[in-house]
Amino acid sequence: MPHNHDHSHGASCADESHVHDHDHSHESPDAPADNLFARIDHPNVVALNCEAHQPAKILKAWHQRMDESIAIESDADDQMILRVPFTGVVKLKSVLIKAGPGEQTPTRVALYVNDEGLDFDDVAAKPSTQEFEMVQSRDVGEYQVKAAKFSNVTCVTLFFPAAQGADTINLYYVGFMGTWTESKKEPIVAVFETQANLSDHEKIQGMDGAMQSPPT
After folding, report:
1. Which residues are in the PITH domain (predicted)?
2. DSSP letter string over 153-195?
3. What is the pLDDT of residues 11-61, one digit of tens each?
4. Could you tell me if residue 82 is inside a domain?
């Protein structure tokens, strides 16, 4: 059934780079060496169908990963797209996600590499690079990606297609593990719409492609 979308809160949201309570250039002292928090281009993180104005706030430093006082929630229905650019080239090892609680946990997450402009119409037609089923948990889940497909990443898009029973999805934390190298060319400045038009967005009923469960 298509959802009737109410976009009074705005269908897309971008981080306001001047409103921050921490320094993105430094990670927590106890963070793993391959944590990529400091390599995320925080001001240019974008979320579609998100009611928050600062989606980058869930891309937290390591010591904040369990903090449930900071979260973002989907707006018109239980789908969300989160687009995360990096400040260089990343060889991605895994994606870390803390979601929920309970039925607000997404059913799965689909990852797309270096597709900066993906919207809901695109993810309906384009095969994902890799996708995972998600389990309900209060812990941070680690989803290990296929190294060959994530060896030259400048941007990763996460698509959450549905909640596990709730009307919306809720995300507390998203993080990345891997290695970073400085870009050898001039950076490309991507300009995203501040108000994406999702009036034609119909809820996607299924996703093609193999699904993988996170390692136990």
Report:
1. 25-196
2. EEEEEEEE--BSSSSS-EEEEEEEEEEEE--SSPPP-----SS
3. 455 443 333 444 444 656 778 889 999 999 999 999 999 987 889 999 999
4. yes
CA pseudo-torsion sign 55, 57, 63, 64: negative
| In-domain check, residue 207 | no
Total-model pTM: 0.76
Distance CA 58, CA 207 (A): 25
d(CA 42, CA 26): 13
108 Cβ contact partners less than 8 Å away, ≥ 6 residues apart? 131, 132, 133, 134, 160, 161, 207, 211
Domain-embedded: residue 58: yes
Burial class (CB within 10 angstroms; exposed 0-12, middle 13-18, buried 19+) of 126: middle
Secondary structure (3-state) at 123: helix
Structural domain range at position 145: 12-181
Greatest Cα-to-Cα distance within the chain, rounded to the nearest angstrom: 48
Number of separate domains in the chain: 1
Within-domain flag for 192: no
